Amino acid sequence: MSEGVSIAVVGSGYVGLVAAACFAEIGHRVVCVDNDEAKVRMLHEGGVPIHEEYLPELLNRHRANRVEFTSDLKAATQGAQAIFIAVGTPQSETGSADLSYVDAVASEIARSIDDYKVIVEKSTVPVYTNEWIRRVLERNGVPQELFDVASNPEFLREGTAVTDFLHPDRIVLGAETERAVTVLRAIYEPLTSGAYYRMHHAVPGARTPDDPPPMLLTTTQAAEIIKHASNAFLATKISFINVVANICEAAGADVQDVARGMGMDSRIGPKFLRAGIGYGGSCFPKDVAAFRHVAEQMNVDFGLLEEVEKINGEQKRRFFQKVRSALWTFRGKKIAALGLAFKGGTDDIRESPALEIVELMLREGALVRAYDPAAAARASEMIPSGPQMQYVDDPYEAAQDADAVVILNDWQEFADLDLERLRAALRYPIVVDGRNLFDPAVMAAQGFTYLSVGRPGANSVAMRARQRVRVLRHTADGCARAKPAKVYLRAAVLDAAFRPRNRGPWHA
After folding, report:
1. Active site includes 479?
2. How far apart are CA 175 and CA 302, in angstroms?
3. Which of 243, 344, 365, 383 has the fewest CB atoms within 10 Å, i.e. the most exposed one?
4. pLDDT digits (tens, 9 = 90+) for 206-227
């Protein structure tokens, strides 16, 4: 293993580029292939096209040493022992995964094979894709003894993908021959043996030399299903807790307390039980739809996934209505939108709930100033700057003279905002938080009208109103005169929401 395994990674997106950098990090020789000449040139010159923690450091460490970039798939294929296919599998109009890129790559690989290769599915693909790749190779005249097709699904979270790759919960390998297993074991040996974690330059994470990641060897079909089933289950947890959050709002309970109580059960666990505005990104929406389509093709009723999708869409609409309830109307209102990527820690705007909500606010006549630490450039390609939409470089600039702040993803920078400075910048002290980043009691103490997801509303005026209702209920003549608590609370919230704290123009 001192010289490592020769690897070709086809595709330089979120999966391919991270895989290429991490394979180089653990000692292999890697060629990363992409048909986008401009992207290849940028990678050659030291650029990094995506936002991922540790990725720039790994590329700088191994560029032109253990990892190189090219658009020549034939040359990369011929020099590799293992070829990882990491191209996009976008959702088609039917909901199935579009495998045209995988098909094209497999066809081109077939024309380049002159000795034994292990061809590995790294993209998220439906079950039996390995069989189709095999057929493509055979139809192009590649002898069966010159290749094996294996499945090695990725379980990477955008924003922490490098750490997830190097410190995985598990490594899943689907292979049908011992020959293929031998190559794949050699690739991951620095991780499974714990050797990588002894290196002085190792990326920090949960794994240690004494606790290396486990490896699951299974069939290619099982490996393909594991990936889709895992993402569908995580999406289901998110939709489930969002429905629970809506029940909590109606009951006056705190969904975070409920989620904490659920997560203490070892059978459930605490992860992915965070209420919010719904899931997005390049994986969950696409993979839930694709897995449902796979079930339909196999005559299996998986109606649960339809409900998961329905709940996710409804959650975004509910949050939009929550913002509307705080402002009464959007037309002419000035809104600071914090967060544009589908979550914090990434610049990926694909299927972003944040952008969907911004578009709805713009459609209703709002004036939006938006800030995201990494995703503004990508977002501006989808929603260009204009009279209604501005992109700024600072959250406080976004909030200056705004009628409300709307928090749409969970960057740590947003959780660390200086609340006094934020309140001073705003025209009205309204914060509508789609990620539950703040303590309602703290926001109330700071004088904010604060609305979040699945938690009782808290602001100082509303709290005084509750106290007034309780006092009235305990007096003989007060009980006769007192209005229902909800009337007082609604009046208190509206009173706080529409009392200006700052007056001034909306700076262009």
Report:
1. no
2. 27
3. 365
4. 999 999 999 999 999 999 999 9
